[in-house]
Amino acid sequence: MKVNRLIFAALWVLLGVQVQAQNTDKAEMDAYINELMGRMTLQEKIGQLNLITPGGGIPTGSAVSTGVESKLKDGLVGGIFGVSSPEKVRQTQELAVEESRLGIPVLVGSDVIHGYKTTFPIPLGLASSWDMELIEKTARVAAKEATADGIFWNFSPMVDIARDPRWGRIAEGAGEDPFLGSEIAKAMVRGYQGDDLTSPNTMMATVKHFALYGASEAGRDYNTTDMSRIRMFNEYLPPYKAAIDAGVGSVMSSFNDVDGIPASGNKWLLTDLLRDQWGFDGFVVSDYTSVNEMIAHGMGDLQAVSALSLKAGLDMDMVGEGFLTTLEKSLKEGKITEDEIELACRRVLEAKYKLGLFEDPYRYADDSRPKKDILTKANRQVAREAAARSFVLLKNEMHTLPLSQSGSIALVGPLANDKNNMLGTWAPTGNPQLSIPVLEGMENVGGRKVKVRYAKGANISDDVEFAKKVNVFGTRIDIDKRSAEEMLNEALELAEQSDVVVAVIGEATEMSGESANRTDITLPESQKKLVRALAKTGKPLVLVMMSGRPMAIGEEYELATSLLQVWHPGVEAGNAIADVLFGAYNPSGKLTATFPHNVGQIPVHYRMKNTGRPQDGDTFMKFKSNYLDAPNSPLFAFGYGLSYTDFDYGKPVFSQTKLKGNESLKVSVDITNTGNFDGEEVVQLYTRDLVASVTRPVKELKGFQKVALKRGETKTVTFELTAEDLAFYNFNLEFRWEPGDFEIMVGPSSDNVQSAVVSWEK
Ligand code: BGC
């Protein structure tokens, strides 16, 4: 142990400090950090603002850090990512703690987006469970595994509202709705951070990408965003705020611009809103080289954009090193102040203090943990349940599902016996080879009486150039040596010999995610041909659809007998799919992002406003708001999803229809399971503000409950609304409710509700 550690230890004794994350005594923390900063040089302070990566993760920007070891020793690093395992994290930490002048530990971060090594479904899939306890649990397991591997700072949750399925990163978030998105943001922060950040099992969360990243124009990643403040506040900002209210430790600024200024250099966003209005007291990290990228945005050279970012309220610079290399110069030239550097440095040190790093920098470097905590049977079981609960049944004619556990099944499709595409996008810490292919799952769950035979049938895509772009992290689209005809014939022969066909089709993992946008969101032609040919056999056709986005699958919907949307299900993919196909679990997911008929409808989402010329229904009417060549309604609406059983909704009962001020409204509805299976239903409550000072959406989700009902069982589901629930940001961006009439709607999906109007006066 070096002298500086001794000094620290002595200081602790002197101050008698007990480090306890959530109840950290602010005065004690301030005293500790004041003392420490009093000993730091300017260069060391700037060093704390530097986040580096030796390149172990996914290098998404143009740079990877160099000279990592010497920077650590020189105290020029505040945090690092792309390093994992207790041993490597300890070695890294040792360089900082034992070898740098002041021995300040570094933050060790990572992108743990949907599970660490036990990969859960992609976030859009998890969201479709509408199960907050489950989502929290997956984040909890992820935190336990990641911290066992030395990582204690997570670049998740991603809470960007996304209404454009062309955008590949729609896979990484909760979908289109601010209310649901906010609930999920809170659940994830709770799951990652727990109630004690100093616990060796919890990690600091980062809400990202602040802000509006999901609104990139044309669904093209990193593109411009532009929207009115009223839309921002009512529709896009709520999930970030929810994460902040839930105590998230850090915020990541986004790549895009906000009102003409890139987020990483936007003072209105990072200071006026985030800190002054919302009271955020953690630190802000940039996205990967997003400070440097402001040069391309036309905001000046590296020195200028770095100064702009610091002044805007950005505390840590991810990989780009503009802070490290230019801030001293800017200070000398009077372009920034020492106070601004100090403030950012203090915020980074505070995060370290809250994590308990000064007390024990090695608390996350315990060699005995990976074996005990990572990829355990119990964790894989959570992954299996989470996956099953994330699936959305979109069609089930003639009750084809669940499948009988006898007879013969033709299991076909390019994703039916595949390990490379089960984990989904942004799962760099997971190992695809550990995932369960669908064929294996069907064999595990099907039992001895059912004969499952497999044929690939088609490539994911036959397009070699397309495959090259998708295969950047390994082979995801594997173009077979056999001809398309040969594969198709094999599948058709198998189909003819079988009782039922199950086709596992859709997108490869890297067809969604970062920098994986599509202008055509239909199935690739190779698979369309397969589905058409299979449908012609006349056998019952179950389509299991994997994708990282809502797809335009109208034709497949028509041709299929049953259609199950499974997203990218994670490491237990095959088992979970088999559980659902054979009925061990009755699907209960509901869509959280609208499925359009075609890209021309985009953006299409349920929370639309009315026009002055609304069209009632889908029958074309001249001079109404509509299309000549497509309906207004989407293929599948937000909130839609079926079950193997049937749920009957009674008439909603309202506690009163005339309310005053702070009275509350109770809305109750009886749900009866009238079908042949036990099941779960997501009951949804929507409101509409009929007259207001600004135009309001035709529907807004304000509540949901997931209830389990045995066959024949009835349960009463009750929602309680207060006037506060009706509040919105008005023209002056004041968050208020306005008295008047409100339509209150209850139902199984956004396009299937029963309603009544209540009046609510001051
Ligand atoms: C992504 C972030 C991610 C970061 C670090 C960026 O390209 O936008 O979501 O956290 O890389 O890996």
UniProtKB/TrEMBL annotation:
Chief site of localization: periplasm
Domain Fibronectin type III-like: 681-750
GO annotation terms (biological process): carbohydrate metabolic process
GO cellular component, one term: periplasmic space
Catalytic reactions of this protein: Hydrolysis of terminal, non-reducing beta-D-glucosyl residues with release of beta-D-glucose
Keywords: Carbohydrate metabolism, Glycosidase, Hydrolase, Periplasm, Signal
Keyword set includes Signal: yes
EC number(s) recorded for this UniProt protein: 3.2.1.21
InterPro entries: Cellulose_deg_GH3, Fn3-like, GH, Glyco_hydro_3_AS, Glyco_hydro_3_C, Glyco_hydro_3_C_sf, Glyco_hydro_3_N, Glyco_hydro_3_N_sf
Entry keyword Hydrolase: yes
Stretch forming the signal peptide: 1-21
Family per record: Belongs to the glycosyl hydrolase 3 family.
Protein name, per record: Periplasmic beta-glucosidase
Organism: Sunxiuqinia elliptica
